[in-house]
Design brief:
Helix content is 62%, strand content 16%. It is an alpha+beta fold and 319 residues long. It has three domains: 79 residues; 56 residues, no CATH class; 149 residues, Heat Shock Protein 90 (2-Layer Sandwich), CATH 3.30.565. It has a five-stranded mixed sheet. A two-stranded antiparallel sheet has the order 1-3. The longest helix has 74 residues.
């Protein structure tokens, strides 16, 4: 039996039962002919009302049931489409990662051969070339060096994408910061910089990836410190309702406005229309953060420096 018919039948049974029982109770207490006639009339009216409302209830229930089933069918079809697209997208991502690996790995050897050949040409025949020939040779060497740099950055980005199954363990970020300080001690001394951090939590993450995340941000701050003296970099953490909010803040000259739009993109066009991998480190940072189901944003100005804000889920926190 259809659900609409079941609901209507139950409604009719209880409705008629209520009318008959209540009318008979009245007749049992009051044994008058006039009252009996009045009760019968009320019974017929009540029965008609229950019948009409029962029919309306049936059609309404049937209509809403069909609407719900139709909507469920649409939702199921949408979910199937999403599943198919997710599978396709995962396959595309795997193909892109494999393509990136092939490009960045298999081009290393022929590129190295070209570099060595150009160096030999420069060493043996550099003094025999005229001004134009020397220019062409020097330009070729610079182009090959730039190509190697771009390929290295592509490979580094591929490594972050491919090695998502790194060992997860409790990582004390205070020790991570101390390791980053030692890792960049020469740069810190050269910049006369002050690198500090608040008491930071212990996270259940990959030690390698979380180190890389913060090391890139801190090293970038130190590299682009400009002439600020004293230069400061500070790392803090605040616990909110759903996220751990980390901030890496410096008092440097800030990020140029024309560099901000593509700051998390691996290769972005430069002023000449070519590709630059200048923000490849931040692309890796973005990849690591999103891989942890987090988010990253930044603000920057010449007056107050740059702040990178990282939102990581509290589920990573080791209690």
């Amino acid at each position: 039996m259809k659900p609409a018919a079941k609901i209507t039948l139950i409604y009719l049974i209880f409705g008629y039962a209520w009318i008959l029982i209540s009318d008979n109770v009245i007749l049992w207490f009051y044994d008058y002919i006039e009252l009996e006639t009045y009760v019968y009339i009320q019974t017929y009216k009540g029965s008609a009302f229950v019948l009409v409302t029962g029919v309306l209830l049936y059609f309404l229930t049937d209509y809403y049931q069909k609407t719900i089933l139709q909507n469920l069918k649409v939702v199921r079809n949408l979910n199937k489409d999403l599943d198919r697209k997710a599978i396709h997208l995962n396959q595309v991502n795997r193909n892109l990662e494999q393509f990136t690996y092939v490009i960045s790995h298999d081009l290393q050897q022929p590129l190295q051969v070209i570099r060595m050949t150009l160096r030999q040409l420069h060493r043996k025949y550099g003094d025999k070339l005229d001004e134009k020939g020397s220019f062409y040779l020097k330009n070729s060497e610079q182009t090959v060096d730039q190509m190697k740099l771009l390929i290295d950055k592509m490979y580094n980005y591929y490594e972050v994408s491919a090695h998502t199954s790194d060992e997860i363990s409790p990582v004390d970020l205070n020790l991570t910061m101390d390791e980053i300080r030692l890792w960049n001690i020469r740069l810190i001394e050269q910049r006369n910089a002050l690198f500090t951090w608040d008491k930071l939590p212990v996270l259940n993450v990959s030690n390698k990836r979380i180190f890389r995340l913060f090391e890139i941000l801190i090293r970038n701050s130190l590299r682009y410190a400009g002439n600020i003296n004293p230069f400061r970099v500070h790392v803090s953490c605040k616990e909110e309702e759903q996220y751990l909010v980390f901030r890496v803040q410096d008092n440097g000259p800030g990020i140029a406005p024309d560099k901000r739009a593509n700051i998390f993109i691996l290769f972005s066009p430069d002023s000449t229309g070519g590709l630059t991998g200048q923000s490849s480190g931040l692309a890796i940072v973005h990849k690591i953060v999103t891989g942890l189901d987090g988010q990253i944003e930044f603000s920057s100005s010449p007056e107050s420096g740059t702040v990178f804000t990282i939102y990581l889920p509290k589920s990573l926190l080791v209690e």
